[in-house]
Design brief:
31 strands, alpha+beta, 915 residues, 29% helix
Length: 915
C-alpha cells in the first residue's frame, strides 16, 4: 500500500457497541463524526486513518449478528404444506429478513461509494460466516470492492491498531462449515420437530403447558443428545439397587496425632468372607509397618481459561448458569475488560506478552500484591503456563485486558466473573503448590492397610486462586518394621449409593468430551432443554428430566435408535471441523449427513407407535381435537394429482372419520372422502400397480364389524384411487365421513375439477325412472311398481308363528322385527334375511294412505355393481347415483335423501315421498 489520494473504507463490525469501540480507538476520539444510518440502532462513524501509509476515510458501521437467515422456500414453510420427509431435499434459501432490511440498505448505500471493505466480525467460525453475508450484500452493490479481514481478540488499543495494520483475507472454509451446520440443523430439526409435535401434542394431556395449542415439541441435533445425558444419568439412579458391603477399619492413636488406616481391599459384598478375615485380624492384631514412603507432591495450577472451562467453573464456584455466564462475559468483553470470551484455545502463544498483562493488575487492592510478587524475579513465583492442547487458531485463552477495581454499573456477577478471569490468569502463570506427602502401609494377619498425610510446603498459586484448596493432614511418625497394636479394629457395614444427578458443570463436561455443540453454542442447547420443558434444574444446578423429556428419549430408545446418544452428532461435528480446515467439501458432508438422518427419520416414523406408547406411560390420552386442523396426520399416499405440488396424506378428522387431503390446503382443496365405517387406517409401503402417475401407496383399513355387511372382511388392504372394487362397494354401502353435504366435488387451486376418485360423486337428481327408464315421473311413483307391491302387501305368519310378509324380490318370508336405534326405537319393520336381497319396509308405512308405495320407496332393485342390503341405485346413462338407508332406518353419515335431496333426512322418512 502506498500513500496517495485517500480511499474510502467501509468497516463493518458485528455489533453497534463494537463499532463504537473500534471507531473510538482508531480515531482516538478526535475528529470523530457520527451520522444516522437507515437503521436507527446501527450508526455510522466517520474519521480519518492511515493504513500502512495509505490515507483512508474510514466509515465504521455494524450489523446485529447474522445479517441473513436460512429457511425453506415458501411452499415448505407451513407445517402441513408437505411431508416432513420432503424437508431433507426441499430447496432452501439464505436471505435478509425484513427486520434487517434497514441494515442492508445502509450497507448498499455506503458500499457504492467505497473502494475497500474491512470486516471486523468476531474471529470464529460464526463471525466468518457473518462476514461472508456482509460480503454478499456489499459486493451486490459494488463488485469492485477490495475485501479485507481484521483479526483481533480484545477491544483494546494495541490489539485494534495491530489488526488494522495487518489485514488479511476472509476464510471461506470457516464460513462453509457454518453453512453446513445451519442447513443440517434446519432440515433435521424441522422434520423431527414437525413429526413429533403433530403426532403427540393433541394426543395427550400435557399439563405443564399453559397454551398447549401452540406448544412445539422441538428436536435439535445437539439439544437431543444433551437431553440424553440427563436422562441416562437419571435412569442410572432409578435403576440402582442398594447393596450392602462390609469393610475393616483400623485406627492408631499416639500423642502426636491419630492415623486412620484404610483396608486395601476396599470393601467386600460377601459377609461371611468379611467376617472370617476380620476374625483373623482380631486373633492376630499386631500391626507391622511394611512401607514408609516420603515424597514431594505438586499440585499444578489450571491451564489457561477457555470458554467451556469458564462456564464450568462459574457454575461450580458461583452457581451461575452457562447462558448467564456468557451474557456477563460478553458485557465484559465489549467494555474492554476481558478478551474474546468464545474460544477453544487453552494455551498462550509465545508471542503473547504475559508480563504486560500482569503489570496492569498490580494496583488492585486484593490481588495486586500477588501480581507484584509474580513480577519479582527474586520471588521465583513466575512460570510460563502450560497449554491444554486445544487451539482454535482464532483467539487466545480468555484473559484480562484492562484493569478494574470494580465498575459502578457492574452487578455482583460481573464482579465475580472478572475476578475469576483475573485470578485464573495469575494462577496459570504461577508455580505449582508444593507438599510433602508421607504414605505408611501396615500388615495385620496378612491383610494390608494404608494411610497418608500431607504437609504443604509452598502454597504458590493457591495464594491467589482462592477457588481451590489442597488439604493437609498430619500423621504420626512411623518407621519400617515398627509394630504396634491398633487402638480400634472394627468391621463396619455400608450400602452402595447411586451417582448424583448431573450438575451444569458435569453436563458441559459430557458435551465437551462427546463433541456436542461448540464453545459458543453449548449454553444455548442447555437453555433450550429448560425452555422446552424437557428438563429442570434445581438450586444446586443439578438437572432432572421432566416426564416429557424422559418419554421422548424412551420412545426413541424403544425404537432401537440411539438418536439421544451423542455419536451421530459427534460425527457431524467432526465433519464440520474437516470442512473448516479444508479436508472435506461442503457438499460431500451435507449429502452424507442428510442421507443418514433421513433414513433415521423414515424408520422412526414407521415406528411411531413406540413414541406413543412411551408418552402414554407419563401422560393421559386426550380426546381433544386440533380445531380446524386434522386430528392426526399419517403418511403420504401420493403426490396431489390436482395441484401437482403438495402431497396427498391420510388424515383423521376430529369426528373420527378418515380422509385423504392435499397438504396444500387451503390453496388446494383436493380431497378423497373415505368410508365412514373405518376404525383404523394406516398407509403402507405397498404400491398400487394400477394407478398412475405413481407411486400411489395402498392403505391398510380396519372396519367396524357392525357397520359393514357380514360377508366383507374387517381387514382390507386397498387403494383409494378407483381401482379397488371392494373399497368402492363399501363406500357405496356405508357412506363417507364427508362434511361436504352439498355433494360438490373437491376443488383444487383455481379449479372446480373433481379429483379422479371414484368416491367423489355428484348429487344431481336422476332424470329417468330407475324401473321403466321413462322420463316424466320419479322412480317412487312408477306405475309399473304399484300393482306389484299391492300383491305383496298381505301379511301372514311364518312357521314359528311370527308375523311376516313375503319379500317382493325373492319371495322369502320377512319376519316382523323391532328397531333399537336412537331415531326409531320401538318402531316395527320387515326385512329380508337373504344376503342377496335388500328388501326393507316399515310396518306403519304399509298401512298409510299411499298404499304400498311407501314400502317400495325404501326398497328398490339391487345395486348394479354389488347387491347389498341398504342400497338404492339410480342409473343415468353410464353414471351411478347412490343413496342409502340402514337396515334399521337410521340415517347414514354423509348421505342425502334420494327423493328431495335434503341432507337432514333420508328417503324412507321423506315428507315428499307421496307427492
Amino acid at each position: 500500500m502506498t500513500s496517495g489520494r485517500p480511499i474510502r473504507v467501509l468497516n463493518v463490525a458485528e455489533k453497534p457497541s463494537v463499532a463504537k469501540a473500534v471507531a473510538g480507538i482508531l480515531s482516538k476520539n478526535q475528529g470523530l463524526r457520527v451520522r444516522e444510518g437507515r437503521s436507527r440502532f446501527n450508526k455510522i462513524f466517520e474519521f480519518s486513518y492511515v493504513i500502512q501509509g495509505q490515507p483512508c476515510l474510514m466509515l465504521m458501521t455494524s450489523v446485529t449478528g447474522h445479517l441473513m437467515e436460512l429457511e425453506f422456500e415458501e411452499r415448505y414453510r407451513k407445517w402441513h404444506s408437505c411431508d416432513p420427509a420432503d424437508l431433507y431435499q426441499a430447496p432452501v434459501r439464505k436471505h435478509v429478513p425484513e427486520d434487517k432490511l434497514d441494515i442492508k440498505r445502509t450497507l448498499d448505500e455506503e458500499a457504492r461509494n467505497c473502494q475497500w471493505l474491512v470486516l471486523w466480525l468476531d474471529c470464529d467460525r460464526e463471525g466468518e460466516n457473518i462476514a461472508f453475508e456482509v460480503i454478499e450484500v456489499c459486493t451486490g452493490a459494488n463488485r469492485h470492492l477490495t475485501i479485507w479481514r481484521a483479526r483481533f481478540s480484545a477491544l483494546i488499543d494495541r490489539e485494534i491498531h495491530e489488526s488494522v495494520q495487518n489485514l488479511v483475507r476472509p476464510n471461506h472454509l470457516f464460513a462453509d462449515a457454518v453453512d453446513v451446520r445451519q442447513e443440517i440443523d434446519l432440515r433435521i430439526g424441522a422434520s423431527f420437530t414437525r413429526f413429533q409435535t403433530m403426532l403427540l401434542r393433541d394426543a395427550f394431556m400435557l399439563d405443564f403447558a399453559t397454551d398447549d395449542r401452540n406448544l412445539v415439541l422441538s428436536y435439535g441435533p445437539c439439544q437431543f443428545p444433551t437431553l440424553g445425558f440427563i436422562v441416562e444419568r437419571y435412569w442410572e439412579i432409578q435403576s440402582h439397587e442398594p447393596e450392602e458391603f462390609w469393610t475393616i477399619n483400623c485406627s492408631h492413636n499416639l500423642p502426636e496425632g491419630t492415623a486412620t488406616f484404610n483396608w486395601m481391599r476396599g470393601h467386600m459384598f460377601d459377609y461371611t468372607c468379611a467376617v472370617i478375615l476380620y476374625e483373623m485380624c482380631i486373633q492376630d492384631s499386631v500391626a507391622t509397618v511394611t512401607k514408609v514412603k516420603n515424597q514431594e507432591k505438586l499440585k499444578y495450577p489450571p491451564h489457561p481459561l477457555n470458554t467451556i472451562e469458564m462456564e464450568k467453573r462459574a457454575s461450580r464456584y458461583f452457581r451461575m448458569s452457562s447462558e448467564h455466564t456468557m451474557k456477563v462475559a460478553e458485557d465484559l468483553y465489549q467494555a474492554g475488560f476481558i478478551s474474546y470470551p468464545r474460544t477453544e484455545t487453552d494455551g498462550f502463544s509465545e508471542r503473547t506478552n504475559l508480563q504486560t498483562i500482569v503489570q496492569e493488575q498490580q494496583g488492585h487492592p486484593v490481588w495486586g500484591p500477588y501480581a507484584q510478587r509474580l513480577l519479582d524475579p527474586g520471588a521465583g513465583l513466575w512460570r510460563n503456563p502450560s497449554g491444554g492442547g486445544h487451539d482454535d487458531k482464532a483467539h487466545p485463552p480468555i484473559h484480562p485486558t484492562k484493569f478494574s477495581a470494580g465498575e459502578s454499573g457492574w452487578s455482583q456477577d460481573h464482579h465475580r466473573l472478572y475476578e475469576l478471569v483475573v485470578r485464573h490468569f495469575l494462577a496459570c502463570v504461577s508455580q505449582p503448590a508444593v507438599g510433602a506427602e508421607t504414605t505408611v502401609d501396615i500388615d495385620i494377619a496378612g491383610e494390608s492397610f494404608s494411610t497418608s498425610g500431607r504437609v504443604i510446603i509452598a502454597r504458590n498459586y493457591l495464594d491467589v486462586y482462592r477457588f481451590e484448596s489442597w488439604g493437609g493432614s498430619v500423621i504420626p511418625t512411623y518407621t519400617f518394621g515398627q509394630q504396634f497394636v491398633p487402638t480400634t479394629l472394627t468391621l463396619d457395614s455400608g450400602v452402595t449409593r447411586p451417582p448424583p444427578l448431573l450438575t451444569e458443570a458435569d453436563l458441559l463436561n459430557c458435551m465437551d468430551k462427546a463433541g456436542i455443540g461448540t464453545d459458543a453454542t453449548m449454553h444455548d442447547h442447555i437453555k433450550k432443554l429448560l425452555d422446552r420443558f424437557y428438563a429442570t434444574k434445581d438450586s444446586n444446578t443439578r438437572f432432572s428430566p421432566t416426564n416429557l423429556g424422559e418419554a421422548l428419549v424412551m420412545g426413541y430408545d424403544d425404537m432401537g435408535y440411539e438418536l439421544w446418544k451423542p455419536y451421530l452428532r459427534s460425527m457431524m461435528e467432526c465433519d464440520m471441523k474437516a470442512v473448516s480446515i479444508g479436508t472435506k467439501r461442503k457438499a460431500e458432508v451435507l449429502a452424507t449427513c442428510l442421507d443418514q438422518m433421513k433414513a433415521c427419520f423414515l424408520d422412526a416414523r414407521l415406528n411411531k407407535l413406540k413414541l406413543l406408547e412411551a408418552m402414554a406411560v407419563f401422560f393421559e390420552r386426550s380426546n381433544r381435537s386440533a380445531g380446524g386442523e386434522q386430528h392426526s396426520i399419517g403418511e403420504v399416499v401420493r403426490r396431489c394429482n390436482l395441484c401437482q405440488e403438495s402431497d396427498m396424506v391420510l388424515k383423521r378428522k376430529p369426528d373420527g372419520n378418515f380422509m385423504v387431503g392435499c397438504l396444500g390446503f387451503p390453496q388446494c382443496r383436493n380431497v378423497v372422502w373415505l368410508p365412514g365405517s373405518i376404525l383404523e387406517a394406516t398407509v403402507t409401503t405397498n404400491i398400487c400397480s394400477f394407478c398412475t402417475p405413481g407411486p400411489v401407496f395402498r392403505i391398510q383399513f380396519k372396519f367396524r364389524r357392525l357397520e359393514i355387511p357380514p360377508n366383507y372382511n374387517v381387514e382390507h388392504l386397498g387403494c383409494i384411487y378407483g381401482c379397488d372394487e371392494i373399497l368402492r362397494q363399501l363406500t357405496e354401502i356405508c357412506g363417507t365421513g364427508s362434511r361436504n353435504h352439498s355433494g360438490m366435488p373437491a376443488r383444487g387451486r383455481g379449479s372446480t375439477t373433481s379429483s379422479n376418485s371414484s368416491f367423489q360423486r355428484s348429487n344431481i337428481r336422476p332424470s329417468a325412472c330407475v324401473h321403466c327408464s321413462q322420463a316424466g315421473h320419479s322412480s317412487n311413483d312408477c306405475p309399473s311398481q304399484a300393482s306389484r307391491f299391492r300383491n305383496t302387501r298381505s301379511s301372514g305368519m311364518n312357521s314359528q308363528g311370527e308375523a311376516s310378509i313375503p319379500c317382493n324380490t325373492c319371495g322369502a318370508p320377512c319376519t316382523l322385527r323391532t328397531a333399537n336405534t336412537a331415531n326409531n326405537r320401538g318402531r316395527k319393520f320387515y326385512s329380508c334375511q337373504s344376503q342377496e336381497c335388500n328388501f326393507f319396509v316399515w310396518e306403519d308405512s304399509m298401512n298409510n294412505s299411499n298404499g304400498g308405495r311407501g314400502a317400495h320407496r325404501a326398497n328398490v332393485a339391487n345395486s348394479a355393481s354389488n347387491p347389498r342390503r341398504g342400497g338404492r341405485v339410480n342409473i343415468r346413462g353410464n353414471s351411478v347415483d347412490v343413496s342409502f338407508v340402514s337396515a334399521t332406518g337410521d340415517p347414514i353419515s354423509g348421505r342425502r335423501c334420494y327423493v328431495c335431496g335434503d341432507p337432514s333426512h333420508f328417503a324412507n322418512v321423506c315428507p315428499n315421498r307421496g307427492m
